Amino acid sequence: MDWDDEGPPDLVGAGGELASEETPVKVPITIVTGYLGAGKTTLLNYILTAEHGKKIAVIMNEFGDSLDIEKSLTINKDGESVEEWMEVGNGCICCSVKDTGVAAIESLMEKKGKFDYILLETTGLADPGNIAPMFWMDDGLGSTIYLDGIVTLVDAKNILRSLDDPAGKVEGHEETDDAHGPVMTTAHVQISHADVVVINKSDLVSELELQAVRDRIESINGLAKIFVTSQSVVPHLEGFLLDLHAYDSVKELDRPGLGHSHIDKTISTISIPLPIMTETQQSALDAWLRSVLWENVLPGHTPSDGPAYDIHRVKGRFFAHDGREKFIQGVREIFDVFDNPSEQPDPDVSRVGKLVLIGRHLDRFDFGKSLADAVGEAPPT
Ligand SMILES: Nc1nc2c(ncn2[C@@H]2O[C@H](COP(=O)(O)OP(=O)(O)OP(=O)(O)O)[C@@H](O)[C@H]2O)c(=O)[nH]1
């Protein structure tokens, strides 16, 4: 990615703002990803025919992976569908320059009127970590779209094989140096970046097999919500595909046992406690995150010849000394630290600070000690 020397921009406000004359309502987008044949098309077709009263634009791959220059876009409102084609330049929306995908969607909305929601299906081999930052944009850039979340479909029958298959190795990533460890497959990156994982084709496996799939997915990504379906039929759309609020809420941090499973040897989820912090400590946390995410340097750790870590997703919450609740969100090198955007903080939420990292080789480094050394103890109250 083309960041300047200072690293990627610190982003403000991941979306969901209230409407006002100054801040127009932004349109949420969900990225729908999943390995070949997992059931993405079945899911999106289900949405196109469901009654939901929303004007939803579904952007689907119609030409397969190599000829993916145009995208079919179907706008559905109350069971009525209109099909359009959108040009996304030379290549697929997933790898075209950052602004092209957003610009294509914005110009369509100018022609067709604003959508209530956008669903974007990626190709089966896409790495959602490359696509998400395209839609997770700084308010200052004036984007009219915001990323609501990433949904990954997996095929219950084949996912374990896909995760262990060296042929599915992600290409073009330095960190996929498999001399140093088990292979990182496309199936891994699609699960590690997901906010929701739908285990589809449950009709093809036994209860025992299904549990093994669930355990493996939880081990890779302890934050994602997991749903089990057959024929991609989800019981309701909100929380599954729509209105995920994955980047403006952190409820999943309170899940019991988060970050304790190590079944998958490639990608894991780790959880680190965060103290109540003064302004100085918050600056230290910010510097630590910049070092870890932008420079791939873990403070206090001497680089060795061993494998480097690679962080895909960051989510956290902490409380400032003055009582404010702060959220941390990140995808790959991009991160944001911001005040809890809801006016009424959830009274059920424990007031315990926590940082969760999902990524590769995290178990080989002491992230907890590095962060504790950088930030220090909670100040006296
Ligand atoms: N047995 C079974 N088959 C399913 C289920 N869901 C989808 N299928 C079938 O699986 C095949 C692949 O489904 P698609 O929806 O095309 O999957 P996809 O993820 O869009 O596949 P690609 O476009 O190749 O990436 C189709 O023949 C579907 O009818 C399910 O829950 N159970």
From TrEMBL:
<dbReference type="InterPro" id="IPR036627">
    <property type="entry name" value="CobW-likC_sf"/>
</dbReference>
<dbReference type="InterPro" id="IPR027417">
    <property type="entry name" value="P-loop_NTPase"/>
</dbReference>
<keyword id="KW-0378">Hydrolase</keyword>
<keyword id="KW-0862">Zinc</keyword>
<feature type="domain" description="CobW C-terminal">
    <location>
        <begin position="309"/>
        <end position="374"/>
    </location>
</feature>
<dbReference type="GO" id="GO:0016787">
    <property type="term" value="F:hydrolase activity"/>
</dbReference>
<keyword id="KW-0547">Nucleotide-binding</keyword>
<dbReference type="Pfam" id="PF02492">
    <property type="entry name" value="cobW"/>
</dbReference>
<comment type="similarity">
    <text>Belongs to the SIMIBI class G3E GTPase family. ZNG1 subfamily.</text>
</comment>
<dbReference type="Pfam" id="PF07683">
    <property type="entry name" value="CobW_C"/>
</dbReference>
<feature type="domain" description="CobW/HypB/UreG nucleotide-binding">
    <location>
        <begin position="28"/>
        <end position="227"/>
    </location>
</feature>
<keyword id="KW-0143">Chaperone</keyword>
<dbReference type="GO" id="GO:0005525">
    <property type="term" value="F:GTP binding"/>
</dbReference>
<dbReference type="InterPro" id="IPR003495">
    <property type="entry name" value="CobW/HypB/UreG_nucleotide-bd"/>
</dbReference>
<dbReference type="GO" id="GO:0005737">
    <property type="term" value="C:cytoplasm"/>
</dbReference>
<dbReference type="InterPro" id="IPR051316">
    <property type="entry name" value="Zinc-reg_GTPase_activator"/>
</dbReference>
<keyword id="KW-0342">GTP-binding</keyword>
<protein>
    <recommendedName>
        <fullName>CobW/HypB/UreG nucleotide-binding domain-containing protein</fullName>
    </recommendedName>
</protein>
<dbReference type="InterPro" id="IPR011629">
    <property type="entry name" value="CobW-like_C"/>
</dbReference>
